[in-house]
Write a structure and sequence with these properties.
By secondary structure, this protein is an alpha+beta fold. The strands form 3 sheets. A two-stranded antiparallel ribbon has the order 1-2. A two-stranded antiparallel sheet has the order 3-4. Strands 5-6 form a two-stranded antiparallel sheet. The longest helix is centred in the C-terminal third of the chain and has 13 residues.
Length: 117
């Protein structure tokens, strides 16, 4: 058996470019019909998961189109909602610019960033 990115019929060598849609995306062996020669073949799908990581930052970004219900730091209502890598706390732009601490998770990352500087 040869590992490929698509199903290749062992009878007629037809490469099925649409094979990703077979078997509902599940991993493992399944029977399928070659779209070229019509013979039944057995395919074995292996799904690979990859991850990438990075250090979190305390940088906050404006969430465009989202209104601030209530700032988690100062209690201001209305205005622009800002979020960070670390948490989902709603923070106003004034508190964000001042690097105000909104929760324990944000404080922990802020401390890590200060230690590395």
């Amino acid at each position: 058996m040869i590992d490929t990115d698509e199903i290749i019929c062992p009878y007629c060598a037809y490469p099925d470019k649409e094979s990703y849609a077979d078997n509902d995306g599940d991993e493992g062996e399944f029977a399928t019909e070659c779209v070229n020669c019509g013979r039944i073949i057995i395919a074995d799908r292996t799904i690979e998961v990859t991850y990438s990581t990075r250090k979190p930052t305390t940088r906050r970004r404006v969430v465009y189109g989202a209104k601030l219900a209530k700032c988690a730091v100062c209690g201001e209502t209305g205005g622009v909602k800002v979020k960070s890598d670390v948490c989902e706390c709603p923070v106003c732009s004034v508190c964000a610019a001042a690097d105000a601490v909104c929760c324990d998770d944000y404080r922990q990352v802020l401390d890590q960033v200060k230690e590395e500087a």
